[in-house]
Amino acid sequence: MRRVIGTFLGAVLTAASVSCTDYITDEGEGIAPAAPTGLFYRLEPSGDPDLPNGLILRWDASSDPNIAAYNVYSRGAVGDFGLRGSTSSPSFHDDGEPHLEYYVTAEDADGLESNPSATVFVDERLRLPRPNSLTSISLDAAIHLGWSDNAFQSDPDGFWHYRVYSSSYDLDNGACGTSWTLEGTTVSPTFMASALVNGSPRCFGVSAITIEGFESLWSALRYDTPRPDAVSQVVYTQAGDALRSGFRFWLDANSDQQAGAAELGLILPGTLAGLDFTLTGTAGSLSLTPVRVNTDLQRYGTGVISALSDVDIAPVGGYARTPLLAQPGMGYVFRMNENDGFYRYGALRVVAVGADYMIFDWSYQTDRGNPELLRVMPAARR
């Protein structure tokens, strides 16, 4: 069974370090208040397992109306206990790096001090192991994170939650930023980082926290980049609907085509020269056909995919301008050059094919040169 939170059971202070129950005052003999009970602590994680922000002590409030203050004593690895501070409430915040041991006494209005409470021992050996793995899924303005639940499994009674951190990521230099933000906490081995900027790479790390507040080492770091997507779009052949027979993943705001239209995921007339592809062919044999010279494509993998999210990193090579048969369940990756010296990548999954139309899901990475469409494969090191 898990220990009482932070309490070092069986600790007995020596006679030299405790106070007697009976006191002699100027007015005569008095009786000291009862010693506080229920003392426990909780560390405040900072992101650095070795340097918590502080420690909070809590204990049971006394029912004695004559209690004026509680005195908190502590010591490091060696040495005698010393007064750390006093408080009128049954809690105490010790800022910065905590001491090794603490106890509390109660003091009444006459200045009589109780025996010490039980001692709590700040035992870093209670720390959980770091999460063994971290994966990510690129979404529209969000990143879904998942990791191994080994920290919880190692000590279910001592586990409290996971903390998720994020920083910027420099794709060109392959390095995480130096300023980290707490994205949030969760008791499950998954987390949705939302309200992110599409096309802006982020770096993520996860730690595990015990019920005492001990923070584990971080998982290996992951970078990922959110990107726009959409589901259940419909494009037609020229014969089916000429005004909705072409598709452009991203339209440069400076383009003279369809001025004022939305920039992403445009379904346009199939006669425009700036399309990424049109749907060509006849019933039973419809194809994705590249249009502009800066767009080529390839089939993703060799078989059907269960969802657009199965398309992860855009392949490095293998692209061509050859039309590809639109097959339900198949994935396709497009490579596009926007005349700025960088490729951009889009993914498409065919949901269904009719006699003169195709239903599809798509995603597009707005970060130039970034092949991430779903899941980051390489891991960054902290």
Brief write-up:
This protein has 382 residues and is mainly beta.
What do these coordinates show?
With 382 residues, this protein is mainly β. It has three domains: 15-126, Sandwich (Immunoglobulin-like); 134-227, Immunoglobulin-like; 229-364. The chain is 1% helix and 43% strand. It is built from one helix and 28 strands. The strands form seven sheets. Strands 12, 13, 14, 16, 17 and 28 form a six-stranded antiparallel sheet that branches. It has a five-stranded antiparallel sheet with strand order 18-27-26-25-23, with no helix packed on it. Residues 1-28, 256-262 and 374-382 have low confidence and may be disordered.
Overall helicity: under 10%
Global mean pLDDT: 88
The H/E string reads EEEEEEEEEEEHEEEEEEEEEEEEEEEEE
Structural class: mainly beta
> How many structural domains in the coordinates?
3
State the helix count. Answer: 1
Gap from first CA to last CA: 35 Å
Query: Residue ranges: pLDDT <50 for 5 or more in a row?
Result: 1-28, 256-262, 374-382
Rg (CA only): 32 Å
